[in-house]
Amino acid sequence: MSCNCKHKITSQFPCLCDSFVHPEKLKIGMGLTDIPRQIAGFPEFRRAMLFSLRPKTGDLTDKNKHALDFWKARQPDDLGMMLLEMWAYICDSLSFYDKVISQEEYLRTAMRRPSLRKLVALLGYLPGPAVGSTVYLTALADGRSKLKLPEGTAFRSDGFEGGSPQVFELDEQFVIHPLTNKWSVSPPRPSVILNANPQHLLVFPKTEIKTGIPFLLLDLAGNAYTQATWVLSAESYKGQEGKFYRNLALYEHAILPLNYPLQHLELYMPSQSAALWTMTVTGTPPSIDEGSKTIVLSGSHQAIQSGQHIVITRNKECRWYRVTDVREVVRMQTGPRPVVINTISFDTPGISIPVTQLTLDTTLNDSSKKKAGAATWTESNKSELVVHFSMQQPGAIMNDQKTSLAFDDPIRFGEKPEQPIDDFITNDFFLTDKNARAVKINRQLNYGTSSLWPEIKEEWDPELILPVNAFGNIVKATMETIDEPFHKAVAVYRLFAPRSPELQFNQIFGEPSRTNSRYNLTDRQTWQRASDACRLRHPHLLNAEGVVKHATETWFVTDYPEAGTLYDMMHSQTLKIDTGTALRVLKEVALAMQYLHSEKPPVTHRLSMYNVWLDSSRSAMVMLADNFLPADRDTTTDVYHFGKLLLHVLQLVEAPLISIEPHDLQNDLLDPILLIRDCTR
């Protein structure tokens, strides 16, 4: 047996092509994103084990053979082959996990967070704390004066897709204004030619538009695109805003470049026409004088004035001109001829009539007027030429409104915004479209033009779908983590009807995380009250969730204890309260009062069995009802109402006599906890 390769022949292998090396030497370089630590897979391990069963030398004597040298696998379900492949599978798994475990020891390839933390700890790196997500929110305010939203003002979202609500707090103070709440953005109307060389023009009509006549398209920017064209039809077209336009179909494409401003174009429609002078009388000058740029009409037309534009047509060909001079000339309708009367011959001078002679800005066949390849107009064509004059504007050329808002479209408002008189300026705005997609932009509000400028600043893609609204009160907030569920029962009760509302809805809850407590504004009367209520936190006070303004009324939202009020419990026919529970409830009420009176300034509150609630474990929860007042009342009044509450409760249960020392009444009357000290011994 021979081989064509150049490998060295050995005694074990006729050629190195038949050699097999296992495992191959690992080659692990630097900076890899994947460490090749897996030395082999299932096929390689299977082959290696089969290869190891071959004799190690060329001597085939029995003493040099392995115990399995005579084993030959013939069937697919051979037991020996199955055991060999099972072991190859185990080797494959072990080699794979060797690679996975090795990669966790390298910073670039580690996948598990504990591995990363262990590796960076060796470098002395301390990971920074998690940073809460930040959002930009729009605030809607009532009234006519600017408002200050202090640091810590909280906003709560709805629960999305079954998840918990999200709460965001202001990291700094923001000032908002009711006059910059919201505006509707007018649908943009492109002010340029949208298609090069259009064959249709959209016109908002102001008079009846005739068809089958030539129109003059005048370029106010220098006549570069001034042209005359026939209008074949003017179909009615309903625009996006519901107005009706006329869609003019032109005989030829108008020569206009893409994005040419419509403000430079005016459309004119002639209301009169006249033919050229065609009578041929000996000695009469021609109707078309190429040298002097003059033409003579068939009659007197005083409606034509110098400086006006005219259109001259021959069949479907149109050319436009500007009249530089108008004068009356006389043309012979009939020439001189002899007349015989009573055999006497007389010579008559003929009949002459006044006609209008026009001097044009160019000759009839000037290259700026005649299209390439068009025929030359001469005196022989005068009977075919028609002059159209007395131009009128049938309407303005425009485009239909767009259905979307691009970043380079002008942002104008449908209503004129009212400018604040208290020097309030905002430069941040939100644009929200029909699909609730929002874009934040930084622009200036021009109250004179009711628009935001500069017109090109930030870019967004895709375009916003109309209708689009603009919001001017933008605040930046940071997300706070909350663990409470979104759906839960709350108690809502009315505070009073406000006089000067400023915000429509606010919700406040949670432990205050800063010295200025979490609260939002409802109006100037309830501001301080809502702030104080939401700051108060005690195990036996109903936690304030927020303040809601509906129409002209303001409502206070708190947790809702499931067991109802103390009055319901004491007068229930099925649920009985024992003496120990009653005394515990009274003590919890006293602890809540002690907390309120310890505030600076003290908080007073008229207690009754109707504003003491019980939770599921029958623990007392004092509710700050509409008679919650700041420290403009003496705390002794609260002690008096607590005494009434204590007597009412003890009348409904069998309780031992309360022993109160005289010095307690003299020295510690202001501390309600002492009133039931002996009851809980």
Query: Helical proportion?
Result: 10-25%
Portion in strands:
25-35%
Mean pLDDT, all residues: 78
Distance separating the two termini:
110 Å
Q: Given the helix and strand composition, which structural class is it?
A: alpha+beta
Order of strands, main sheet, comes to: 12-13-18-15-14-19-11-8-9-10-7-20
Catalogue the unreliable spans: 482-487, 495-522, 655-673, 675-681
Number of helices: 8
How can the largest sheet be summarized?
Answer: 12 strands, antiparallel
Q: Whole-number radius of gyration? A: 49 Å
Count up the domains: 6
Tally of DSSP β-strands: 35
Shape: flat
Walk me through the topology.
Blueprint: H1 42-52, H2 79-103, H3 113-122, E1 134-138, E2 147-149, E3 154-156, E4 167-170, E5 174-176, E6 182-185, E7 200-205, E8 213-219, E9 227-238, E10 244-250, E11 265-275, E12 288-289, E13 294-296, E14 309-314, E15 317-334, E16 337-341, E17 344-348, E18 351-360, E19 385-392, E20 395-397, E21 404-405, E22 411-412, E23 428-432, E24 438-442, E25 444-446, E26 451-453, E27 464-465, E28 468-471, E29 474-480, E30 490-496, E31 505-507, H4 527-535, E32 544-550, E33 553-559, H5 566-570, H6 579-597, E34 612-614, E35 620-622, H7 635-652, H8 662-667
Antiparallel strand pairs: 1-29, 2-5, 3-4, 4-29, 6-28, 7-10, 7-20, 8-9, 8-11, 9-10, 11-19, 12-13, 13-18, 14-15, 14-19, 15-18, 16-17, 21-27, 22-26, 23-24, 23-28, 25-26, 30-33, 31-32, 32-33, 34-35
